[in-house]
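Try this one yourself first.
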């Protein structure tokens, strides 16, 4: 990464320019890297609190990044006999808003091991988990196999208590294979249990488009957890389709199974904004018309769509100019109402009071406007929540409703405002 590249350059800098290199290059790059690591690791520790080992690792990473910043600052202040002493005071590094009176360091919460046996079974992202208690009867849902491109999913298991225990996985059906299926976990130890789907076997025995939800049982001597694995039957044409938008079919599963699955998906979307039932299309997968170009290696997701000229606006109500367009195709297994989310770089409007908008059109329907930044947005203002969220998330995001037909749909992006760099779109059933 950039920090490692800067460190590698240090030995190649002549001795007489080492101080200038540290002041102008090494300190800004390493300090920014550690600052981001400090805050992001702290946030990840909170998210991973269901996984004790992961949470403690993130906590230690955040604290180490803080210590690294202090050491970098001490070195900065001592350079050239203290020539720049005080310019990078440590109390400045915790500011959360411009010109704060006082700094604020991230709050670290320690995760203490349970003083008993404790088995934690979590989804791959650590967002939802169960300890397999008889009194909670909580089911963990996996929805990756609702997409034709997914044939492997993982479940994380952890010993979050005291003492070792043996575990095993039973249940499922003939189209699901688990590896490993048993083992022993020591305190703080984790293991990834891999679930493999025989998609061809499922296709031969279950009608296309129907869903089964077999249950895997993860057992120890003191707990058992239920993992419900949603599996949709696809044919070869489905598996070959690019940009397939997964949905929950009605056929095959019981109403009670569907209700629990829908509740899980709703909770996951409210938590992360995305889920396994979301098609993700990155900027480099679009076909650009005149006025749009792909920026490879750009931004949070590795590519971006930018309209040219970069300072030109294309609002049809204001300029009458021809709007640059970029197109991509997506497959919807059923007709209905969907949401398209536009994710852009966290840029600011080029004019005060300006907006960041992009048009979205499904097939030949009228264009919808995704407003990523409104006219009340003030970049850099302490009271602007949109700006703060954009900086922390490294993106702007906006959703628009669209109607999709069953089959292949053409999705068109239309440039409206300058300074909008689209990095990806999300498509999911409304």
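Now uncover the answer:
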């Amino acid at each position: 990464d950039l920090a490692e590249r800067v460190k590698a350059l240090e030995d190649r800098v002549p001795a007489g320019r080492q101080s200038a290199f540290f002041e102008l290059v090494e300190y800004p790059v390493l300090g920014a890297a550690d600052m981001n690591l400090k805050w992001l690791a702290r946030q990840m520790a909170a998210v991973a609190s269901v996984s004790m080992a992961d949470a403690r690792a993130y906590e230690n990473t955040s604290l180490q990044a803080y210590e690294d910043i202090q050491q970098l600052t001490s070195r900065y202040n001592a350079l050239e006999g203290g020539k720049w002493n005080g310019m990078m005071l440590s109390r400045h590094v915790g500011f959360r808003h411009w010109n704060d009176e006082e700094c604020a360091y991230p709050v670290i919460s320690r995760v203490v091991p349970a003083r008993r046996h404790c088995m934690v079974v979590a989804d791959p992202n650590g967002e939802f988990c169960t300890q397999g208690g008889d009194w909670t009867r909580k089911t963990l849902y996996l929805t990756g196999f609702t997409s034709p491109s997914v044939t492997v999913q993982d479940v994380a298991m952890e010993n979050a208590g005291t003492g070792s225990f043996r575990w095993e996985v039973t249940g499922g059906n003939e189209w699901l294979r688990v590896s490993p299926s048993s083992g022993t976990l020591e305190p703080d130890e984790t293991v990834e249990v891999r679930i493999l789907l025989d998609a061809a076997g499922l296709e031969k025995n279950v009608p296309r488009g129907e869903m089964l939800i077999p249950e895997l049982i993860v057992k120890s001597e003191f707990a058992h957890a239920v993992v419900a694995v949603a599996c949709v039957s696809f044919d070869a044409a489905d598996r070959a389709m690019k940009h397939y938008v997964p949905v929950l079919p009605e056929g095959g599963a019981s109403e009670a199974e569907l209700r629990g699955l829908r509740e899980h998906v709703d909770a996951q979307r409210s938590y992360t904004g995305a889920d396994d039932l979301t098609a993700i299309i990155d900027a480099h997968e679009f076909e650009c018309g005149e006025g749009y170009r792909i920026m490879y290696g750009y931004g949070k997701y590795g590519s971006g769509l930018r309209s040219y000229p970069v300072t030109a606006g294309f609002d049809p109500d204001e300029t009458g100019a021809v709007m640059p367009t970029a197109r991509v195709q997506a497959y919807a297994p059923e007709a209905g109402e969907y949401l398209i989310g536009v994710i852009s770089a966290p840029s600011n409007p080029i004019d005060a009071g300006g907006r960041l908008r992009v048009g979205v059109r499904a097939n030949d329907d009228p264009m919808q406007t995704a407003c990523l930044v409104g006219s009340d947005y003030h970049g850099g203002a302490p009271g602007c929540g949109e700006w703060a969220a954009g900086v922390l998330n490294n993106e702007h995001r906006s959703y628009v409703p669209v109607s999709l037909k069953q089959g292949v749909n053409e999705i068109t992006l239309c440039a409206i405002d300058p300074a909008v760099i689209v990095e990806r779109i999300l498509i999911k059933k409304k």
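Discussion: The chain is about 25% helix and 30% strand. The mean pLDDT is 86.
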